[in-house]
């Protein structure tokens, strides 16, 4: 779909299509819909990012808490959202060796105990080795810096999900 088709959507359809561009946070799509029409996909993305940026720190942490653990229980139980399942499997997280899975689970718990929200990273921009390394490094971060870093990762995930939903090329006039 292109941006003019997006702008023609009724609220319910818009929410159905864009409700998970930020994982399990349909309120983001619900909030930006009132800014329709968008002149481009970038304008839609900017509206989403601005909404996130203007949330209080507790709201940003709330968004982070809506994310499933990487290679965690939801992946094992088959209860991930379709988007998250595809992202995690593309990074190889559905095919971890048992030692890797154990290490990932330990670090995920350590991270959550330290910060009170789960480790979030754009899985499609990383492979499993990179994810494990960054998880280990970021466990040592300072809380405010880590929250800001995690929100940047939410935006990368959102950017790629939007790219998968809306065509960015100009309509073919021929
Ligand atoms: N915890 C976490 O980062 N989860 C997310 N990352 C990603 O790319 N998709 C997700 O669901």
Automatic annotation (TrEMBL):
<feature type="domain" description="Oxo-4-hydroxy-4-carboxy-5-ureidoimidazoline decarboxylase">
    <location>
        <begin position="7"/>
        <end position="163"/>
    </location>
</feature>
<dbReference type="InterPro" id="IPR018020">
    <property type="entry name" value="OHCU_decarboxylase"/>
</dbReference>
<keyword id="KW-0576">Peroxisome</keyword>
<comment type="pathway">
    <text>Purine metabolism; urate degradation; (S)-allantoin from urate: step 3/3.</text>
</comment>
<keyword id="KW-0659">Purine metabolism</keyword>
<comment type="similarity">
    <text>Belongs to the OHCU decarboxylase family.</text>
</comment>
<dbReference type="GO" id="GO:0000255">
    <property type="term" value="P:allantoin metabolic process"/>
</dbReference>
<dbReference type="Pfam" id="PF09349">
    <property type="entry name" value="OHCU_decarbox"/>
</dbReference>
<dbReference type="GO" id="GO:0005777">
    <property type="term" value="C:peroxisome"/>
</dbReference>
<comment type="function">
    <text>Catalyzes the stereoselective decarboxylation of 2-oxo-4-hydroxy-4-carboxy-5-ureidoimidazoline (OHCU) to (S)-allantoin.</text>
</comment>
<dbReference type="GO" id="GO:0051997">
    <property type="term" value="F:2-oxo-4-hydroxy-4-carboxy-5-ureidoimidazoline decarboxylase activity"/>
</dbReference>
<dbReference type="GO" id="GO:0019628">
    <property type="term" value="P:urate catabolic process"/>
</dbReference>
<protein>
    <recommendedName>
        <fullName>2-oxo-4-hydroxy-4-carboxy-5-ureidoimidazoline decarboxylase</fullName>
        <ecNumber>4.1.1.97</ecNumber>
    </recommendedName>
</protein>
<dbReference type="GO" id="GO:0006144">
    <property type="term" value="P:purine nucleobase metabolic process"/>
</dbReference>
<dbReference type="InterPro" id="IPR017580">
    <property type="entry name" value="OHCU_decarboxylase-1"/>
</dbReference>
<keyword id="KW-0210">Decarboxylase</keyword>
<keyword id="KW-0456">Lyase</keyword>
């Amino acid at each position: 779909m292109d941006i003019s088709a997006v702008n023609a959507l009724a609220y319910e359809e818009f929410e159905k299509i864009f409700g998970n561009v930020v994982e399990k946070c349909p309120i983001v799509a619900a909030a930006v819909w009132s800014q329709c029409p968008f002149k481009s996909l970038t304008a839609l993305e900017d509206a989403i990012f601005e909404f996130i940026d203007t949330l209080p720190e507790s709201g940003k942490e709330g968004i982070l808490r809506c994310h499933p653990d990487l290679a965690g229980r939801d992946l094992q139980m088959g209860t991930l959202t379709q988007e998250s399942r595809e992202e995690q499997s593309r990074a190889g997280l559905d095919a971890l060796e048992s030692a890797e899975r154990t290490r990932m689970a330990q670090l995920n718990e350590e991270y959550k105990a330290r910060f009170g929200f789960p480790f979030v990273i754009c899985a499609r921009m990383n492979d499993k080795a990179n994810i494990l390394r960054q998880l280990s490094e970021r466990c040592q971060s300072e809380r405010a810096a880590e929250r800001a870093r995690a929100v940047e990762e939410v935006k990368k995930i959102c950017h790629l999900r939007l790219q998968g939903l809306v065509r960015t090329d100009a309509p073919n006039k021929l």
